[in-house]
Each structure stands twice: as C-alpha cells, then as structure tokens.
User: Fold these one by one.
Assistant:
Number 1:
Amino acid sequence: MLTSPVYAYGINLLPAERVAEEVMKLNTQLAEIVRETGATFTLADLDQRFQSLLRQMEHDGTCHRGESLPPIVTKEQWLQAQLVTIQKLARGERLYT
C-alpha cells in the first residue's frame, strides 16, 4: 500500500518513515470515525485532510521538506488507496498478511 504522499503530491517530507506513520495514524483515526458514526469521506475530504496533515508536519517540525519529486500516481489514485485502507480498518480487516 502506498502510505507515502510523495507518490501523489510530489511533496517529499523527511524522514519518510515518520510521514508514513502519520498517514497511517490519520487513516486509523478516520476509520474510527467511520466505525463509530457511519460517516463517509469523499476524495475531496481526504485531500483536504492529508494536505492539512502534510502542512502541519512541516509547520511543527515533525518533518522537513526534501527535494520535490514528480508524482508517480494521480492524486485520485493515491486518495482512493487511502480510502480503501480506511474502509478495511473500519471493518476490522487486516492490512498485511
């Protein structure tokens, strides 16, 4: 699963492992909301939330910006992968075998 937003946004925040952890943490939080309230998220909703997360990590010093890279998937493809992850987490499914 693509947990690094650099693949879609081209924003290279470092350390990459920390970014992936924070993306999964947000996915888990959103899955909890889905599970508890039945909420649904659009790709636009997710885009706002992930872009906010990236800005916050850079602003608070959790991560620093490296050299920008060209995206290798569309933003929509990356967000769709995150949505699938959120749905699986909300159903209690395992992500990795």
Note: The two ends are 12 Å apart (CA to CA).
Number 2:
Amino acid sequence: MREKALGIIFFLFMVCFLAIIVEETFLGGKRKRRLLREAREKQNSVTKPL
C-alpha cells in the first residue's frame, strides 16, 4: 500500500515537472520572440522619422 502511494506521488511529480519544462520551453520561447520583435519594431519606428 505504501509503495503504491509513493509511486502515485512520484508519477504526479513527474507529470508536473514535464508540464513545467514544456511550458517554459515552448511558451516562454514564443513570449521572448514576441518581445524581441516588438522591441525591434519600436526601435525602428523611433529611428525612421529622424
């Protein structure tokens, strides 16, 4: 019984750990690219009128 409970807890931990890695890898990467693109567009809009 105790081993089964520990196995379930370990399995849930691994699922959460993998979900965090996927979120940071894919969604974090998209967010970073979007912010870089917006910063580049902002910089270009500031330098063009001069």
Note: The longest helix spans residues 2-47.
Number 3:
Amino acid sequence: MKRVKEKELQQYIQKFNSKNIIVNLGGVINAKIQMEKVKSHYNTRNGIISLSDLRTNIKIDTSTVYKMQVSENETIFEVYLDNGLDLRIEK
C-alpha cells in the first residue's frame, strides 16, 4: 500500500467511476455495501468524496482524514478517519 496525498486524490477516486465496488466500513460502524456502476467524484473545493449508484449515496468529508492509501494495483483504496471509522473501497 502506498500513501495518497490530497492533490492525488481526484485521480484515484475517478478510477472507481462506472465500476462495481464494495465499500467496507470498519471501526465504530461496521458495514459492507455493494455498489454497481458507481459515479465517483472528489470535490476539491469542499473536500467531499462522493460515491453513488441507483440505491446508495455515500459522502465522505476529508477534513477528518488522517491517512489515505491505495494498493499497488490500485484496486483497493483505504481512508482512515479521526472519528474511529475506516473505509475500504474495493473494485
């Protein structure tokens, strides 16, 4: 896994666009969410990562992120938040 800086975030989030993904939440809340044909976007102005499909809409505020990392083959993206919640996005 390699660390992701905020200026690189847009390019990694765009790679999930139109893909089927699994979002795993860990920590305070545990969940596994499967999403199909995702629309993914990172808004640089307000620091919000958006993942949505026909049934689900997830927004992640990056102001509380302390670490982001991506796997070497860029199929797994992990986000660690200050509030005890960790996200793992897999293609």
Note: Strands lie at 2-3, 21-27, 31-35, 39-43, 48-52, 57-61, 65-70, 76-81, 85-90.
